[in-house]
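Fold this: Haloacid dehalogenase-like hydrolase
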Amino acid sequence: MVRFPQIYGPGSLSVISKTALAVVVVMATVMDAGLASSASVTCEADWMGLKVSLFAFDFDSTCTQEDTTSLLYKATEKYRSSSQAERKLLDEQWRELGKSYWTGHREVVSKSLSIHANPNSSTFDEKGLRSFLQEVYDYDITMTKEVEASEILKGISKEAIIEVAKDVKLSPGCLNVLNHVNLPLHLISVNWCQGLIHAKIGHLRYLNIFANSLPLEGELSSGHLGKKLTSAFDKEIIFQDLVCNKSTGGSEGISVYVGDSIGDVLALLKSDVGIVIGKSHTFRKVAKSFGIKLLPLQEIQKMSQNGCQEHTIPKQKGVLFEAPSWNEIGFTLFGTRYTPNKF
């Protein structure tokens, strides 16, 4: 998937009370506002979190505050050696590519939804969703070719990637949650540059990155783009393989996937707990159009089983969960084991 920054402008099965649910939400909100220290924050004493055995997540706009694609052209030798005036021209060239992409993307999404979606459907329409995603993928491939033809990403060095990675801003609480996951961390991204991801969060223990690499000519990027992971379908395949390996290994517990966009939707739906973070209007429009239910993340506590122990939840087809922040993800997954601002 081409990633440009958006430039336009059940009855309860648990013993947890409504008050307890409110505590979790309030604590997550307080921590995100920076109004409490980790020493003073506790979850509801009965909530031990979920028994997680597989954890996967997206990178751009999930782990980061913004899409990182717009940093890549700034790592080219041409950009780094240019005058201020020349850099402005390259900035404008990138903006035009982004403008062209998002204009076309909105048109493709709107047209495809009008053909494949039933906005009044109350049941999950997987067939329609897949047809829609295929059309979006076809468009993305076309735009990828335009980026390659422009050669705006030609001449990127590993050293320059390390430098621009310093400008990547991570989402508040993301690293803290990831450091609480005592499991392999499977990052599944359509990002064009795995090196950028590694430069930013490669220090994380157990990190396993699935992403693209920039093809090289000597020690610099050729301007072409790696295409081994480009769509929602590719992400789904990788995540499904991880799930199968987990099952083969006899590992008990649930699978979790965290993502923000329509590129994550199939992997999210394949997971036991698919968590949507961020405020993507397109994602919510697509979810509604194909009968995908979005529930507040704290609803998991109402659905959980096994009393006050480490919980599992029943898998529901076509149901995902919304999280306003990474801290709420941490409180929900790990309960009293989660310490905000620890890392």
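Residues 183 and 206 are 7 Å apart (CA to CA). The chain has twelve helices and nine strands.
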